[in-house]
Amino acid sequence: MALIKQIRQRTGLAIGVIAVGLIFFLVGGDILGPNSMIMGSSRTTVGEIAGEDISYDEYVQKIEQTKMRFQQNTGRNPNENELTSIREQAWQALIVEKIFSEQYEELGLVISDEELVDMVQGKNIIGELRRQLTNPQTGEFDREQLITFLQSLQNADPQQQMFWAQQEQLFADSRLRIKYDNILATSEYATTAEAELQHKMANTIADVRYIQIPYYAVSDSLVQVTDSEIRSYINNNQEKFQVEESRGLQYVRFPLHPSEEDSAATLEQINGLVAELKETTNDSAFVVRNSEALNPFRTINPGDPLPVSFANNVDQPKEGVVYGPFLSNNSSYVAYKISEQFDGDPRMRASHILLSTEGLEGEAKEQVRARAQEILEEVNETGNFEVAAAQYGQDATSQRGGDLGWFFRDDFVTEFADAVFAANSVGVINELVETEYGFHIIKVTELPQTLTRKLAVLERELIASDITRNNIFRNADYFAANSTNANTFEANAEKENYQVMEANGVGATARSLNNMGGAREIIRWAFNDASVGTVSQVFELDDAYVVALLTNKTEEGNGSINNPVIKAQATQELRNEKKAAYIKEKIADLETLEAIKEVFPDASIGSTADLRMNASVLPGVGFAPKAVGAIFGLQNSGEMTDPIQEDIGVIVAQLNSIIPASEIGDYTRYQNEITDNASQRTAYMIMMAMEELAEVKDYRYKFF
């Protein structure tokens, strides 16, 4: 591939490079280097922290340290995504070093020699060492390995000794940061008044009807928005329209689709392997050796589906038979063989609604039980378990209607598993199930299944050959060479029927253009080398060649009507404001929700009997915090709010009733909840505040 890339370079460019190389040989190769007098030291600065320049070399050294630690922990080199994360970790480590060291000194925070010894060889070995030094047979931390390693350091080579010294320093720095964060995290405190308010917000319930009038219910022609108004709106709301430095690009993508010849060659190859798979007696070893699938030999547990391309092509697969090859959705040819199928441990599927009792005892716990019983009766009456789960559930499953997926008996606590696996039919279990987590309302959605399969997957990726890639590159290179500005770029694209894509508001650290990943080099070109109207060379991505045109530059600062993204946003917001005023005028004297709907037929009327004061969403409507707040400002049944402008339209609500939160004797649970939430945010908030105070400036996008 490297040779092919060299052949692709244009002849004229190659001659120019040779000429420049001769000059470099005569006057010195560093004339344009990072430390050259011509280019200046700014070319080596990747950022500023607390007024101190961070050099490229210093940053790369920190990256290498972080990368080495990753390799020690995983036993492998990082992939591109992991390397991006490592660069970010290295940058954050530099920030911590530069701005936290002064804080540590002022507070008197230190790591003593005795503490460091305890961390690496005493009673309190840090987690990182414990993970690295485990016994492969037991999976537990092996102190003997640690002792052997530390004893070997005296005779180790200097590089290994230096690495261990760096590791110890990292351990110490990490412990200092933990101490610092803990000082502030443990200083969080919630008063009884705050806890009472938290309880009130969580347990005050409104039964309410409401109508939402969407903005599209008013025709755009009824509200005129001028450029002068848009400009004034942007200027008066600059807090909304602050912009970061960005670029706008157009680009033509030349996909690396395999040719018919490539497809035929791959199909011939996999057909040969299929013949061997039919005869082999060791399916797992064969596919591990010959398949390009991520998991070539896998267990399909009861309830889990077969791969889509297998299930779509075979109705009743039999053990020992090879099926395929089929063309998959991932541009590959794939064949399957069920090596074994048998009755394994049963799995079933259920959903639940959890009402937590964590930290509750006595009367408070009984109140939760009573509420759970009411919800169970409601579910039995309405039959709409999923809606109830979304409305009442208090764990992450509420977002998917309470679905727990397929599970083995041992995946859940005993009380829950016993109740579910005792069911003889699908449907709601007509009694509450209590576990250590709280009260569960359970719906069995699938009865136990036991069919287990061992599946061999033989896959060969269908990719463009070198010949095909060269042909595609020639087309892209010809297009780039003949497109010298925006006009010729667009004209040549239209002539060749190439699709021109747009990407606006591209940030300096972005790694993709729209949904096109791996585009970092294109973005670096746009920020470092290109002028508006410049056409790029050919960029090679994993699955395409790309030629780009820089269409605009946006500098950091106040937004302007000249920015098309900001103009569009401001226009929409201003138009919605005018539509909201129009709607309010039309419904000013109307006294019922039904009367409002007669004026605006596109409006929708809804209701909820369980709207909580701490909610920000109206069921069936969406994010509407102002409307929720107005609802809980009502006092009497039948009372209506004024029209409320939200991002989703204008809302009018009518109160049926409010059930105030009951008084409780102990608000400790809510105090702990507030304190814990605040403590969990402390480390992040500290970091953000320190970065802001240190005026951290990040120029890494110029280099990576």
Topology:
Layout: H1 2-8, H2 11-27, E1 45-49, E2 52-55, H3 56-74, H4 80-107, H5 113-121, H6 127-132, H7 143-152, H8 158-185, H9 192-203, E3 205-213, H10 227-236, E4 246-255, H11 260-279, H12 283-290, E5 297-300, H13 308-311, E6 322-327, E7 332-356, H14 362-382, H15 385-392, E8 403-408, H16 414-421, E9 427-428, E10 433-435, E11 438-461, H17 466-481, H18 486-495, E12 500-507, H19 520-528, E13 539-540, E14 544-554, H20 564-586, H21 593-599, E15 604-612, E16 617-618, E17 622-623, H22 625-631, E18 644-646, E19 649-659, H23 668-693, E20 697-698
Antiparallel strand pairs: 1-2, 1-20, 3-15, 3-19, 4-12, 4-14, 5-11, 6-7, 7-8, 7-11, 9-11, 10-11, 13-14, 16-17, 18-19
Can you describe what's shown?
By secondary structure, this protein is α+β, with helices and mostly antiparallel strands. It is built from 23 helices and 20 strands. Strands 5, 6, 7, 8, 9, 10 and 11 form a seven-stranded antiparallel beta sheet that branches. A hairpin with a 2-residue loop joins strand 18 (644-646) and strand 19 (649-659). The longest helix has 28 residues, at 80-107. It is globular, with a radius of gyration of 33 Å. The model is unreliable at 1-41 (pLDDT under 50). It is found in: Cell inner membrane. Pfam families: Rotamase_3, SurA_N_2. InterPro entries: PPIase_dom_sf (IPR046357), PPIase_PpiC (IPR000297), PpiD_chaperone (IPR052029), Trigger_fact/SurA_dom_sf (IPR027304).
